[in-house]
C-alpha cells in the first residue's frame, strides 16, 4: 500500500497550525498584534508533533494491513476505534489542563483528518 506520508504531514501541520492559532486568537486577540513570527516559529514543534502522531499512531494501521485490503477497508475497520480513543484522551487532556485546549483540539481534529487523507489518496500517475 503506497502512502504519501510527507504530503500528509505537510497538510496536517498546516491544519494543526490553523486550528491552534484560531483557538488562541479567539481568546485574546487584542493582546497579539505582532503574531506572524510566533505562528511561523510554532510550525516547528507542531510539525514534530504531527510527524510523530502520523508515523507512530496512524500510518502503522495502513502499513500492517497491506494484505489484500484497500485503504478504504483499513479506514472502515480501524478509524472508529482510533476516533473514540483519541477523543477520550484529548477530552481528558482538555479537562485536566484547560489552558492548553488549543493543543488538544488541534491534535484531535488533525489526527482525524489525517485518516481521511490517507484513506482517500489517489494513485499518482508517473509519466516517463
How many β-strand runs? 0
Task: Give the integer mean of the pLDDT values.
Answer: 86
Task: List low-confidence stretches.
Answer: none
Number of helices: 4
Question: What is the approximate shape?
Answer: globular
Largest sheet, if any?
none
Using only C-alpha atoms, the radius of gyration works out to 16 Å
Helical fraction: over 70%
Which structural class best describes the helix and strand composition?
A: mainly alpha
Strand content: under 5%
- Could you tell me how far the N terminus lies from the C terminus, measured between alpha carbons in angstroms? 22 Å
Order of helices and strands: HHHH
Describe this structure in words.
The structure is a single chain. By secondary structure, this protein is mainly α. It contains 4 helices and no strands. α1 crosses α2 and α1 (5-27) packs antiparallel against α4. The longest helix is centred in the middle third of the chain and has 29 residues, at 36-64. It is globular. The protein starts with a helix and ends in a 9-residue tail after the last helix.
Q: Features of this protein?
A:
128 residues; mainly alpha; 0% strand; globular
Summarize the topology.
Elements: H1 5-27, H2 36-64, H3 71-96, H4 101-119
Helix pairs in contact: 1-2, 1-4, 2-4, 3-4
Amino acid at each position: 500500500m503506497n502512502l504519501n506520508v510527507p504530503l500528509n504531514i505537510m497538510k496536517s501541520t498546516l491544519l494543526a497550525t490553523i486550528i491552534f492559532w484560531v483557538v488562541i486568537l479567539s481568546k485574546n486577540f487584542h493582546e497579539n498584534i505582532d503574531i506572524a513570527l510566533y505562528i511561523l516559529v510554532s510550525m516547528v514543534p507542531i510539525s514534530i508533533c504531527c510527524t510523530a502522531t502520523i508515523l507512530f499512531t496512524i500510518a502503522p494501521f495502513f502499513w500492517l494491513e497491506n494484505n489484500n485490503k484497500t485503504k478504504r477497508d483499513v479506514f472502515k475497520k480501524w478509524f472508529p476505534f482510533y476516533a473514540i480513543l483519541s477523543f477520550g484522551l484529548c477530552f481528558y487532556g482538555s479537562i485536566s489542563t484547560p489552558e492548553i485546549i488549543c493543543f488538544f483540539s488541534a491534535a484531535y481534529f488533525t489526527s482525524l483528518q489525517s485518516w481521511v487523507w490517507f484513506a482517500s489518496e489517489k494513485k499518482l500517475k508517473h509519466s516517463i
